[in-house]
Amino acid sequence: MFRAAVVLAIASVLLLALALISVLSEEDKRKIRALPRWAWLLVILFVPILGPAAYFVFGRPVPAGKSGSAWPLSGFPEPPKPRAPDDDPEFLRSLDQPTISKEDEELLQRWEEDLKRREDEQRRRDHDN
Question: Is the pTM of this model over 0.70?
Answer without folding.
Answer: no
